[in-house]
Amino acid sequence: MSTRLPVFPLGTVLFPGLVLPLHIFEERYRTLVRELVASPEDGPHEFGVVTLRRGSEAPAPDSDDSDEPETPPIEVDDLYPTGCTAELRQVTELPDGRYDIMTVGRRRFTVKDVRQGDEPYLTADVEWLPDESADQTAELLAPRALAAFRAYLELLRPDSEVLDAVPGDATVLSHLIAATAQLTTDERQLLLSAPDTATRLRTELKLLNREAGLLARVRAVPVPLSDLARPASPN
User: Fold this and answer.
1) 86 in helix, strand or coil?
2) Gap between the Cα atoms of 109 and 3, Å rounded
3) I need a surface site. Which of 15, 61, 66, 93 has the fewest CB within 10 A?
4) Which residues contact 95 (CB under 8 A, 6 or more apart)?
5) CA separation for the pair 65, 67 (Å, rounded)
6) Residue 125: what are its φ and ψ, rounded to 5°?
7) Which candidate, 163, 141, 143, 142, places its Cα nearest to that of 152?
């Protein structure tokens, strides 16, 4: 059975257990934050984060709406099919009515349809993906993935703090790698939608080895890394 969930289309991919800070400036999502804060304490203070394939959900803060073309409605084909809920952990209301919020990724889902109903914000009919638990194969893959991750980070940014805070759980490690490595949105979505931890870790091993090889070759070229890097993500 599907569940109707408020969703926030963004240009980023959220993974379970990872922190996502957001600045809420658009009125419809201010409404959502107020509703979540006012919901019962034992209720799920969460909304869905889904990644945009194309388009933009909202004008930039402080933009003049009168000079902006009307934002076309978001359709299901404008979104990647797999998302993750963001659980509200901290809310700071600013003097002008905006919010700074801190969220943490919680559970994955598949988007079946999106609609604009009585609520001012977008909602989606979603189906929950099974909760993950690391099996024996994932536990065997985790040390290899961690070693590849360390080698990759050492090439990318030596003395990174990420090396000092590596989780022991294989599933949590797989989500941390997916969120931290410099990957394309398509690759992140592939990892988010992986059916199990072992599949995600196998894919990450391939991606990390590829990226480490590219970084090693780039470092051997007498050109600044910034000149050869991929275009920066707008997220």
Assistant:
1) strand
2) 10
3) 66
4) none
5) 5
6) -85, 120
7) 163
Q: Note the pTM of the prediction, 2 decimals.
A: 0.83
Distances (CA, A) of 105 to 50, 59, 60, 179, 222: 12, 25, 24, 11, 40
| Residue-level length of the chain | 235
* Reduced 3-state DSSP string for 190-233: HHHCCCCHHHHHHHHHHHHHHHHHHHHHHHCCCCCHHHHCCCCC
What residues contact 135, with CB distance under 8 A and at least 6 apart?
Answer: 196, 197, 198
What amino acid is encoded at 209 in this protein? N
pLDDT of the residue at 223:
45
Whether 145 contacts 201, CB under 8 Å: yes
pLDDT for the residue numbered 160: 59
pLDDT at 153: 86
- Find residue 128's DSSP bridge partners: 109
d(CA 7, CA 139): 33
For the record, the structure tokens of 159 come out as 């003395």
At 57, the amino acid letter reads E
Nearest C-alpha neighbor of 33 from the set 79, 83, 84, 92: 92
Q: Quick one: tokens of 220?
A: 């051997």
Residue corresponding to tokens 């658009």: 26
What would the two tokens of residue 62 be? 């402080």
Q: Which two tokens stand for residue 160?
A: 């990174």
